Amino acid sequence: xxxxxxxxxxxxxxxxxxxxxxxxxxxxxxxxxxxxxxxxxxxxxxxxxxxxxxxxxxxxxxxxxxxxxxxxxxxxxxxxxxxxxxxxxxxxxxxxxxxxxxxxxxxxxxxxxxxxxxxxxxxxxxxxxxxxxxxxxxxxxxxxxxxxxxxxxxxxxxxxxxxxxxxxxxxxxxxxxxxxxxxxxxxxxxxxxxxxxxxxxxxxxxxxxxxxxxxxxxxxxxxxxxxxxxxxxxxxxxxxxxxxxxxxxxxxxxxxxxxxxxxxxxxxxxxxxxxxxxxxxxxxxxxxxxxxxxxxxxxxxxxxxxxxxxxxxxxxxx
Length: 318
What we know:
Rossmann fold; 14 helices; 43% helix
């Protein structure tokens, strides 16, 4: 069975994995743990643990259990004044499991068994970390993922607040993979946090597997305003330091103008254009198709099944 390793965090990663789990591939997922917002940020500070939010989302996207259990773990408390207000059950459960099992990796492995997950889910590191952005002249520093996301235009370099250790399981999974995938998601706060770790970049540099980027469908305000696919690609290539993305999966279908206008008006988001010539100039193969869907709330999302099928087809032809 072919082996795939996927790097990312957030909704884009969860969507991609919900499709990949339907295909006969062995998937290892590596997830950033530097989030500092909402419930995750509160638990991170109070219990001195890595961020559990993205890990929990990914686990549920890959779950093979009845819907009621998934709904229970997704349930978020809404009781103003309560210490549980805004905490989803999955975050509380992962926090408890870290205490019981000793670390986030073992907590995640237990959850994988409980949710009958095919494949492996690994946090990038066991350490509590904060993302730090620095200006070109070094005079301004933006501390924490939320601050970085809001100030990308002022940032010339990203790092963590301290040197971090990457587990052997992550390095081994990269070396053994048949395909390395960077998922859709927040470029500077979900994808690049993997590539500011020398151990990750060095291991990818020596890996035999091709590198794939599954492009975002819309921009992220403050992070990727006015970015096309080739702009995302150029940033990834710069951080890969010696390797380049080999293949890009992008959307080539038109999205209803009323939905696009609403995204721009309400969220200041625009579509990420598939600029083929600029992508090809960077040496990347393009796999394109109609890969978007509109969910029940009118949000633009990747069509998980179609996107995963394109990935599987590429993998089988390698």
